[in-house]
Design brief:
This protein is an all-alpha fold and 343 residues long. It has a domain of 80 residues: Serine Threonine Protein Phosphatase 5, Tetratricopeptide repeat, CATH 1.25.40. Helix content is 75%, strand content 0%. The protein has 19 helices and no strands. Helix 12 runs antiparallel to helix 13, helix 13 runs antiparallel to helix 14 and helix 17 runs antiparallel to helix 18. The longest helix is centred in the last third of the chain and has 20 residues.
Length: 343
């Protein structure tokens, strides 16, 4: 069982209380493992290291605690120390799949991805929990630019866990990199046959149709994504883009506007709204949204260019020149001082 901030977990509370005193309390090895896992998930490396040290003092033969120590070594790029400790652990427990996973991690850190894959495939023979290892193998193939092989392993992830959306994104990434958009569509339609309310799959299907300029099918796919999750901001944005292509500008504005209500305003949505209003010859509204765009993101040159072109069309060349110089100044000055990007 993993610890959480709201779990009201006694071992964690007891451990943190112990750190504030000189009294050393006893924990069983599983409690230490849960505490360490919690700190690693929270990114509290110093506390994780303290827990590992105290855990090994109380349970010096615990292989799992030593594996956490290996994980810290790898995180700190102490690969030699990690390798030595892993070899010791292998001699004690040669059938522990986590030893192979961490060994593969070391090879990956050294850019020896072929050897990492070889070791991970050995780990597959030792575990019933294959999903994470399939994913790791897929990532190693991505590092080697072997997208067909990577796709195969990410598909294996989804065959084991249909809700592994990270794997789904990676599958589609591989299809796209290989320019296999029709094959991606076939795969997604098959996937949706067994998971018809997966908003991510509908969203990705819509993007494939959009790339192929089949806007009618793209629109239908984004509609289904929204039916599956009516708060899916990405689906509204993509639907807006399709509606623009179909010259249904008022509907596109409605979709972009809805994203502003669901989440923080994005410069992309604001600029697209401005562009739609300009297409509808509602110039005052167009300018208002272009100005909101550069206020939201002063480094977005497309926003400044849109304002410049707007005034050029109106033959107001003085203002066009003013905003052109404003773009150069803002992009140069804020680019040099990124910490003030949103001031």
């Amino acid at each position: 069982m993993e610890l959480g901030q709201d779990d009201n977990n006694l071992p964690l509370t007891k451990f943190e209380s112990m750190l504030k005193t000189n009294h050393v309390l006893f924990f069983d090895s599983e409690e230490f493992e849960n505490i360490i896992h919690y700190y690693l998930n929270q990114g509290k490396i110093a506390l994780a290291k303290k827990a590992i040290k105290l855990g090994l003092e109380q349970h010096p033969t615990s292989i799992n605690l030593k594996l956490f120590k290996v994980e810290i070594f790898i995180f700190e790029d102490k690969l030699k120390e990690a390798d030595i400790l892993l070899n010791e652990l292998y001699n004690l427990d040669p059938f522990n799949e986590e030893i192979y996973i961490q060994k593969a991690n070391i090879f990956s850190k050294k850019d020896d991805h072929k050897q990492a894959i070889k070791v991970l495939k050995k780990a597959l023979e030792l575990t019933d929990d294959v999903v994470d290892i399939y994913s790791l193998i897929g990532m190693e193939y991505l590092f080697l630019d072997k997208f067909e092989d990577a796709k195969t392993y990410f598909i294996k992830c989804l065959e084991e866990d249909i809700d592994d959306y990270s794997a789904l994104y990676n599958v589609i990434y591989c299809f796209e990199f290989l320019d296999k958009y029709e094959e991606a569509i076939t795969y997604l339609n098959t996937f949706l046959d067994s998971n018809p309310y997966c908003e991510v799959a509908w969203h990705q299907l819509g993007k494939q149709y959009y790339t192929l300029k089949d806007y009618k099918k793209a629109l239908a796919a984004f509609d289904f994504a929204i039916i599956s999750d009516d708060t899916f901001v990405g689906a509204y944005l993509e639907r807006g883009k399709v509606l623009e292509k179909l010259k249904r500008y008022q509907e596109a504005i409605e979709n972009y506007t809805y994203t502003l209500e669901l989440d923080e305003p994005t410069s992309f949505a604001l600029m697209r709204i401005g562009n739609c209003y300009e297409k509808l010859n509602k110039n005052d509204l167009a300018l208002q949204f272009y100005e909101r765009t550069v206020h939201e993101d002063p480094l977005l040159d497309k926003g400044w260019i849109a304002i410049t072109k707007f005034y050029n069309k109106k033959k107001d060349y003085n203002k066009a020149l003013y905003f052109k110089f404003a773009m150069i100044f803002m992009c140069h000055w804020l680019g040099a001082f990124p910490g003030v990007r949103r001031l």
